[in-house]
Design a protein that fits this description.
Layout lengths: L8 H12 L2 H4 L31 H5 L6 H22 L1 H4 L13 E5 L13 E11 L8 E9 L1 E6 L2 E6 L6 E6 L7 E11 L5 E2 L7 E3 L4 E3 L2 E9 L17 H7 L10 E3 L9 H19 L6 E4 L15 H11 L6 E4 L15 H15 L11 E8 L2 E7 L5 E3 L9 E4 L5 E3 L1 E4 L5 E4 L8 E4 L10 E3 L8 E2 L11
Helix pairs in contact: 1-9, 7-8
């Protein structure tokens, strides 16, 4: 089975590895081909021939041979450097040297760390935040380097101790920080840590597990989780450079990374992508299916199996129903199941609020492997969680019907009422709802706030939180909606 994942290379190769581990069920080795690039849109993996009639992309796809990519890359580097300089120039903390020893930070507010700052009240803020706290050293701990462990920081940091820089990492939002504090920087009693954090999108701040935040001497580990002082150096980033970047160009990565593979015989493909298309989530339903059919035409192997991962839960949970770009993108992914020989691994239950890449990669690979065993190799097993099929209004309730129920629908936690459902009437305003599994493997949904229900949505959020609806195979139901109301990325 050929595996052609288009996301972050190391991330997807791990998932591909676990998918490939199904050789224990088949008794033969599984070959994996890794063709991946992080942060890309679906259009760049589609051929210019397939995009020829697209009114927005066709002309660009046809003119790739005429583009001076060296000049484009140089312009991108210059614009990126200028943007980063603008952040530094507008950062009040750098201007006033908040990292200097003796700086008076007594008026700063406090925040419990570790946590993303959006979870601490700085909602949707991309910018610069400075953090400070102190720790004490005993006399017998001085004179030898100590290790400052800070866990992951989203996105970039510069870290100081007693006014001296001890380390920095730039655009490494998923990497744990570990910096050495030299002996000549240390002080007996109070030592001041200052961390400048820059976030350019999504969650920001010092996050991770509390135990990972500590100062480690030869004698002990000093916990640093808890109250930190903070101040905002820059609350709004300067405008992002408006230039075009190569990875956003249609057909480019198809030409460079997919077309050279076409002479190879494959049994199928797996795909993990979608985040970079969130702003055009509704259009993704057309362009993703276009790419699938394009690859099948290019290989001339018929409708070979195409398996993909639906976006996991991500970002902070919301208390009330609202529009969601990721929910719209997930719906567009589900639409691809209308193509023959396709399978979708639902991961709405194993994502991370603070990490765009699910850490439980083994389960992602296992669910893909189930789909491969069933679709590619014909094993008789349940390979998908419940997929919404139809609905029926019954008075003040709505009954939902599903495919892939297996032997029965279950509540994973054994709860009487399922979480994650909302209901709306003709006004299209959604309210939290109660939902219960019926004996006939359907689900009844209702809300006292909606006496005349018309629509149901399930897990309709970037991160819907804890969910319960599964089949007996232990696979989660895919997010869905029963309505066809216009969504936020629907331009028509």
């Amino acid at each position: 089975m050929g595996v052609l994942p288009p996301r972050n290379g190391s991330f997807l190769f791990v998932i591909g590895y676990f998918t490939g581990s199904m050789q224990e069920h088949l008794g033969v080795p599984i070959g994996l081909i890794d063709a991946s690039w992080g942060g890309t849109v679906v259009e760049t993996w589609t051929s210019s021939k397939a995009l020829a009639d697209d009114p927005q992309l066709g002309e660009v796809a046809r003119s790739l041979k005429e583009i001076d990519f060296d000049s484009m890359m140089e312009r991108s580097r210059v614009e990126q450097a200028a943007w980063e300089r603008a952040i530094d120039e507008q950062d009040k903390g750098l201007e006033e040297m908040w990292y200097k020893e003796g700086y008076d930070w007594s008026g700063w507010k406090t925040m419990k760390l570790p946590q993303l700052w959006e979870e601490a009240g700085l909602d949707d803020m991309d910018g610069v935040v400075w953090f400070k706290r102190t720790f004490s050293l005993n006399a017998n701990e001085l004179g030898r380097p100590i290790q400052l462990e800070l866990g992951p920081i989203d996105d970039s940091d510069i870290t100081y101790v007693n006014g001296k820089e001890v380390g920095r990492m730039i655009n490494q939002y998923n990497s744990a920080r570990s910096y050495t504090v030299p002996a000549d920087v240390q002080k007996k009693k109070k030592n001041t840590i200052t961390i400048r954090v820059v976030d350019t999108g999504g969650g920001g701040g010092i996050y991770g597990e509390p135990d990972a935040l500590k100062a480690v001497t030869a004698k002990r580990a000093i916990p640093l989780a808890g109250e930190w002082y903070f101040s905002i150096g820059l609350s709004e980033l300067p405008p992002w450079p408006s230039g075009v970047y190569p990875n956003s160009l249609p057909a480019l990565l198809f030409n460079a990374m997919i077309h050279p593979l076409i002479p190879l015989g494959i049994r199928g493909a797996i795909w993990y992508q979608g985040e970079s298309n969130e702003r055009v989530a509704f259009r993704y339903r057309e362009r993703f299916r276009l790419m699938i059919n394009d690859w099948r035409k290019q290989w001339k192997l018929g409708d070979f199996p195409f398996l993909f991962v639906q976006l996991a839960n991500f970002r902070k949970e919301k208390e009330k129903p609202e529009e969601s770009l990721w929910a719209e993108l997930r719906e567009s992914q589900t639409e691809a199941l209308k193509e023959p020989n396709t399978g979708m691994a639902v991961t709405i239950d194993i994502g991370e609020a603070d990490d765009i890449h699910p850490r439980n990669k083994q389960e992602v690979g296992r669910r893909l492997a189930l789909a491969a065993r069933a679709i590619v190799y014909g094993e008789k097993l349940e390979y998908s969680g419940p997929i919404y099929r139809a609905s029926q209004i019954e008075g003040n309730k709505i009954r939902l019907y599903f495919n892939h129920t297996g032997q029965e629908l279950i509540s994973r936690e054994g709860l009487e009422w399922l979480r994650g459902f909302t209901v709306a009437g003709a006004d299209g305003v959604f309210h939290p709802a109660k939902a219960k599994i019926s004996k006939d493997n359907t689900v009844l949904v209702f809300s006292e706030a909606v006496p005349d229900p018309k629509y149901v949505r399930y897990a309709w959020a970037d991160n819907p939180g804890e969910l319960d609806l599964y089949n007996e195979a232990g696979l989660p139901a895919a997010p869905f909606r029963t309505d066809e109301l216009k969504v936020s990325t629907q331009k028509e």
